[in-house]
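Reagents: none. Just compute today. AraC family transcriptional regulator.
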Amino acid sequence: MKVLQFTIPVAHDKSVITDQVELPYHYPHLHRHKEAQLTWIQRGEGTLIAGNNMHAFAEGDIFYIGPNLPHLFKSNPEYFKSEDHRPVKALTVFFNPEGALSAMFDLPEMRAISQYLGQHALGFKLPARNTQSIAIQMLAVREATGSKKLLAFLELMQGLISVGNKPEALSTHGNLPSMADNEGIRIGNIYNYIMQNYNGNITLEDVARAACMTSESFCRYFKKHTGHTFVSFLNEVRVNEACKRLTSHKFENVSEIAFKCGFKSITNFNRVFKSVTGSSPREYLDNYRQNINSLSQSA
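Predicted 3D structure written out:
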C-alpha cells in the first residue's frame, strides 16, 4: 500500500538529479516519492499542498520537501486556460539520502547535514533572505557534471543548513494513512474540486456527490486520509486565496477579497482568517509590508 508513489527517473550514472520544467502547469496529482527535493519556483503562482497543510507559492519561492511527504504544487486556475499561455517554470534538485548517497550521508563529516534533514523531514519554505544564494547553488548543481556535480551538491547542502532551525514545517503530520494509487488520485480529485469551487456556495453534499459518496462516508474518508474535516480544509483554501489576494498589490479592499474567496460576511471572514493564520487580515498585511520593507533595506 502506498500514496500515489511517483518514481523519479534516475540515470544509472547520477545520484543527484536536477529537473528543469517549463510547462503549462505543474504536475496536477497528489504524490510522494522516496527522494527529498528542493524546488525553486522560477515562474508561476498557486498553492502547495504538503501533508495536511497548504501554502501559497509564487515566483522566487524555494521549498524543501522531505522524502515520502505527500505533496502537490497546484497551479492557479488561470494556468489551466489554454488561451492564457502562461507556462510555469521551476528547477528541482532530487536526492535520496537512503539510496545511492547513503554512504556519503553516513560519514561523520555529514552528521550535521544528515541531522538537519532528519529534523526537517516535514519540509519548509526557505526564508526570503536565503533564496538568492540557494538559487545560485541550485543552478550550479544543474550545470555541473561528473564529480563536480557532487561537489556542487555538497555546497548546496551546506547552504541549506545555514537557514537554521527556525523555519516552520510545511506539514504538521508526516504519518497520514497510506493509500493505494487509486485512493491518491481520488484525494487529489477531491482537492481539485474544492480548489476550483471554493469561491462559490460549495457544500459538504456537493463534494460528497462529486466523490460518489454519501456525506457521512465522505466525512470519515476525508478526515482519515487528510487529517482535516471538510470545513477546516475549505476554510484553509479560502484563507490561503485571501492571503494571496491581500499581497497581490491589486488594490482590492478586504471586504471585496472576502466575498471573492467565498465568505458571506466580513465578520465570518475575519473570524476564520484569524483562526487559520493567528492574525487579522489587517495585521497580516501590515506584517507582510514590514517584512518587504526589512528585506529591501537589508538588500
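The radius of gyration is 20 Å.
Action item: order primers for follow-up constructs.
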